[in-house]
Every structure is written in structure tokens, then in C-alpha cells.
Amino acid sequence: MGNYKNVEEELVALREELDRVRKQTSAALEAVGIGLWTMFPQQNRVLWDEQCQRIYNWPHASVRLDEFMSRIDPQDLIRMQAILAEPPSRQTGKPTTIDYRITSPVDEKVRWIRITGRVTMQASGTADYFSGTAQDITDEKRREATLQTVEQRFQMAFSNASVGVVILDTHSRIQLINKAFADLVGYDQEELHDQHFQAISHPDDVQENIFLAQQLLAEEANSYVFNKRYIRKDGSIVWAQVSSALIRDQDGKPDSFITIVQDITTELQAQAEQKKLLSLLQSSEESLRDAIELAELSTFEIDPAKDVLLLSERARDWLGFSHDERITLTQVLDTMRDRNSVEVSLNQAFSKDVGTTTDIELWAINRQTGQERLYLAQGRVVRRSPNDADLVIRGIAKDITTQKQYARELEQQVQGRTQALQQATVLVEQQADQLRFVTDSALTAIALYSIVRDEKTATVIDLRYVLINQMASRMTGIPVDRLIGKTMSEVFPGMKGSKAWHLYLELAETGTPLRYHNHYTQDGYDIWYQVQGVRQGDFLVLSFLDITELKQTQLQLEGLNKDLLTANDNLQQFAFIASHDLQEPLRKVQQFGDLLKNQYSTELGDGVTYLERMQLAAQRMSILIKDLLTFSRITTKTQTTTEIPLERVISRVVEDLDIAIQDADATVQIDSLPVIKGDESQLRQLFQNLLSNSLKFRRPDVKPDIHISAQRIAASDLPSTINMIRQSASYQLISISDNGIGFDEKYLDRIFQVFQRLHGKNQYDGTGIGLAIVQKVVSNHGGTITATSQLGQGSTFQVFLPYES
């Protein structure tokens, strides 16, 4: 029982770790607006997600590689081609980052894009595909190009800031704003002077804002932070995070409010997109749980001397052994795909001393069902009893098929943004105090250094601390007064001679803006941080963002990505075995049954009836396997998206069902149907299943009447009960109506589940998978399906698909 408890605790810990990683990933995606892409040089194709489409302002989710390369600026194209020809990540194993300019085919505007990715190599050594992230850095490049001289040292520290700053009097009237805030709300700076903050605030947020300001005036709080909405000059709404504090004069009386305003509209949109992705992930997991159990644990004991293997009840169920059956080691090894390697691992473990541990991943087939699954067996060599010389292996095993299958590829490059503050036009000393408050409130460590040069050669030899904010002090663990006036080499002697040290000196010499990630492990530190730096005259401004936790998350997600790739390969192998090996025994049963009926029917007598029932069961099993394979392929196979005329698809389906239509004396009316983007084979499967159901579930003595129609619906006109997977401006509604037996609408959610039937097999044949396949096809195309029906009055299935004109 102790082993069971430890294993259960280990499983709970693993699940909690996976949940924590997912939450960290979600937080990172909410903070960083990045897109994901994959490039296939051999297929001359680039695929990307919707975020990438917005970043590049590209009309399609798939584009030819040569067309994409033709849009890259000639000055950047050679560098891009060199990286594709010889990817640095092939040698280093690390992601490669490159900045380049590209012209959108939609608005012909030039954008700066930063991509970070790595290459996946084929066994032959050639590149199979590239994948990674993309981010629009156009604004960043523009800011770098337009940096201006700042008159005061504190102003230099914020030359890269992009936050809005608002100063209000104690009556909450605007006295001063910077350009960032003016741009945020769409006004000129002069237009808002002496206006009450309510003039540009959303009415629903005003009372909370006033309450928080009154708390500051009453000294009930030192500052506050909350999210609010501003009404722009053009009437649109923008979300912002507002950080505010009360400035007092020398006598301690309230003087003014200083408010830092950060645009979080994009972050909230990313949060909504992440919630949608999580919803899709949960939906996918629920579908998979219908066929695969969640990982559980079992125990085993191997006695090679007696060729005996003791298994717990769960392990017996896994491998298809009865609960009272004596099991030999040979029988269990016969269920394994790679029997030889498992035997070698066991022999090696027994050849060593007591206490030797062994971990084996193995594929095993259930003897009763033929299902193959992946297990992890962990055992230890022990004596059968304390005084017994014979050795056995005791351990635990767990089904890890689901764990392998659920891993997700996610590489993320986290990039911080330094805050920027425009030159103020008010009194210099008052502005300096206000800017000091802003720097000490920032989450980014910021430091201003003077450049130290050799008196004889004038070469840069060190950097001296002039100003730092509180975050820089907390990150280094050194008080501010102990840093000011010291050189960098005095504070961090391990820095001298490092790559970062040479980059700082190069920045001081050349003035070229600096941006990079660094892993510092000297002087008792072990942190990852993102560095940005600029030079102004004889001063440097460096900002440091601690990304240690995010970097650790990235490394963990890379491991999950490898597990996902393995799980996908295993699922494809299972589909291949099911489509060949499982069908062959059924064909043999039917063939030998025919031989028995033809040659020995007189001798069998009443046994012919049992023989026919056996063949009918084999036929149903064959159909079930085919339906399961169809569902599996639709679930795992990458679909091909092209322009598909639905009239052509349905005409071919009607041709395939011609005999069934004639037998039922059915009428099929097809209205004008649109052309949509999708996978033709999957759409054909969808409509074949729906039409087959209309023919199958018909009323006795009533000729089937089937009507197929379509209409275009704007997104705003969709029923409130319809939840679309992929958002679109409009949708195509394809309706398939019949006059069949109908069904009670209380079973609407049930009919689309795998193996769910509303009638017995003796009434209507089928496997209960057809409508589950229909729903999966619709989901793959970003749509949804529903139905309306009454018993004895027929049914109408409605398929909503995104429409891109």
C-alpha cells in the first residue's frame, strides 16, 4: 500500500506541475503579442496562425515561400537566405533571432518583423522545416530611429518609455500630459489642458476612480492601480492600466496627482484569445477521453527463474488476462512490440546486484481487444524474501499513452519593453521628482552610467553608476547608496571579460543601440535577464528585465514538445496497425464462415444460424473499425484547404448513394450551393453521413423527402446559442432537412457523441460514430453543427461554416 500511495502522490505532483506550466504559459502569452509560424522549404510553403496574419497584414494563413521571400527588403533578403541555407540552430541547438523588413501585400506598407525559430532536420541532414515565433517591432524600430537628445539625466533614463503620464491638480483637472497619453486617447496635448478626467473616462469607471483618488487625499492609501476604459476622441474605447499617486508639497499638503497610464488593450485581447485556445484544448481533451483512459498505476513482480509474472488487476485488464489466470513471463513478453529490447533490459537488471533499478518504456497489445498502448515500467531488483537468494523485480507501471499524446509544442521568446517618457515642459526640479517616482515604480531595472575612459588613450575601460531605480537595487540585492559612484567592475568583478562586458564597452564606443538576453552565473547569481541599452553623449542607459522564471518555463515546455511529437508518431502507428492487422482476422472469420455454410450446411443443421450470427457480428466489427479509423484520421490528419464547390461534393455523394436512394424511392432536392474553403474528402464524408442518416431513419410507408439548401448569415445575425470556433464576418448555413422519424430534442447533445445511439441495433444498424465524425469535420473547418427535430416529424441538421469572400 505504501508503494501505491507514493505513486499516487507522484501522479498528483505531475498533474499539478503540468497545470502550473500551463498557467505560466497563459500568463506569458497574455503579456507578449507574438505569432507562431512554420516554414517548409521543400514544399515551398509557410504556415502561420491568425496572430502572424495580423502581424504581417497578410490575407492568407498559408503562403508560398517564394512569394513571401519576394516581399522581404533586398537589404535583408541575403541575410535571410543565408540563415535558411545554413541554420545556426542546426549547430548550436538554440533558437535563431533575426530582424528584417517586409512589405504587406494588402496595404503595401513596410513592417519590421522579429522572428525567432529553430530548424528540424531530416535523417539525411537536410532541413525538414523551420518553426518559431514572430513579433511586429516596427514601432520599436521607429522609436530607435527618432530618439532625440534629452536635456536632463532622468529624462535620458526614459527615452525608450512608451507609457502615458498625466499630472492632475487636487480637483482631478488635467494640468500636463505627455505625447504617449495624447496618442492613447487621440487628442492634442493642448485640447485636454484643464479638463476634468471624467471628460475622457468611461462613465462606468468614474465612481471607482473618484473613490480611489479620495483615499489618496485622505491618506488611506499611498497609491493605487486599477484597469479602466478611456473614451478616445473618435469615440472608440481603449483599456489602460492606471497607476496613480499623490504628490505633496514641502509642507506636506496635497499638490497634484501623477498617473502612469499603460495601454493594455492588446494584452486583454491576447487574454481573450488565450481563453479561446484553452477552451479548444479542453474540448479536444474531452473527445480523447472517450476512447483512452487517463493514466493509472499498477504493480508487478517478475520471477525469471520460475517464468512467473504477478500482475495487479489493473495490469491484467491492460493486457487482456483474466483475473484468476496464471501468467508466465513469456506470455506477457509476447504482447510487446519490441520484445527483444525488453528482454535485454530485464537480463541486464538481473545481472547486477540487489537494488538495481530499471525504467522501460514499452508498447503492449491487449490480447482480448487488440488495442496497443504505451506503458512505463519502473522496477527494482530485490530478493524474493530476506533469506532467499533468488532475485525478482518488483515495481510499478503506468499507462503513459495519454501523457505523450497531450504534450503541446510551444516555444516562446519573451521580450520586455522598456518604459519611455517624453520630455516634459514644466519645472525641471519638480519633473525630476515625478520621474524618480515613475522609475521606482517600474518593474524593469533601469540604470544610468557615466562612461569611464583611459586618461591616455581615451578608450572605454569601465562604467560608473550615476542613477538607478529601486528595481535595480532589488535585483542586485545592493542598496542604492552603495551602488552610486561605484564602477561596474567593482560591483560585479565576475562581469569583466564576459560577453556582456564586451557588449557594454562596444555600446559605449559605437553608440549602436543594444538589445540581447544574458544568463549571468557569476558572483553568486544565477539569473536570466533581457538587456536594452542606448548611449547619449558620455552616458549609457541600461534596462534589465528579470526573465528567469519565464526562461525556466520555456525549457519545460520544450520538453513537453518532444513528448507531443512522440505521441503523434505513436498514434499514426496505431492507426496503421488497426487499418490492416485488425481487419484481416475479421475477413478470415467471414471467409471460413462462407466455406462452412457452403460445404457443411447439412451437417451443421441449426448450427448454420449460429454461424450466420457470427458472420453478422464480424461484419459489424469490421464496420466499427472502419468508422473508428475514419474518426481517428479526421482527428489527427492535417487537412488540406482549397476552394471547394459544395454542389460538386454533394452531387458525388448522391451518386455514391444512388442504390440506397432508389431502394428507398427517395427524393433529394438540392438548391444552389456556395463555394467554400475546406478539405474536400472531409466535407464529402460529412454530407455522406448526414444523407445516409436521412435515408436510414425514414418512416415506414412514407417516401423519404430530403432537401439541401444554403444561405449566407452575417456574424451579428447568428443565434445566441451558436458558439463558433473560428470568427468570421459572415457564415454559410447549410441545412439538410428530411421527413423521417425525427428524435426528441432533449437528446441533441448526446447524438453527436461517439458510440451514442437512440435506437437498438435490431431497429437500425450502425456504430454510433457517424454523427461524431460529422461534428469533428465541422469543428476542423472552424464551424459548428446543431439540429432541430420532433418525433415523427423529421429532422433538420444545420451546419454553420466560416465564409471568406
Automatic annotation (TrEMBL):
What are the entry keywords? Coiled coil, Kinase, Phosphoprotein, Transferase
* Entries under InterPro entries matching the protein: HATPase_C_sf, HATPase_dom, His_kinase_dom, HisK_dim/P_dom, HisK_dim/P_sf, PAC, PAS, PAS-assoc_C
Keyword RNA-binding carried by entry: no
PAS domain residues are 150-220, 284-336
PROSITE patterns to which the protein is assigned, alphabetical: HIS_KIN (PS50109), PAC (PS50113), PAS (PS50112)
Enzyme type, top EC level: transferase
Q: Which reaction does it catalyse?
A: ATP + protein L-histidine = ADP + protein N-phospho-L-histidine
Q: What is this protein called?
A: histidine kinase
Organism from which the protein derives: Spirosoma liriopis
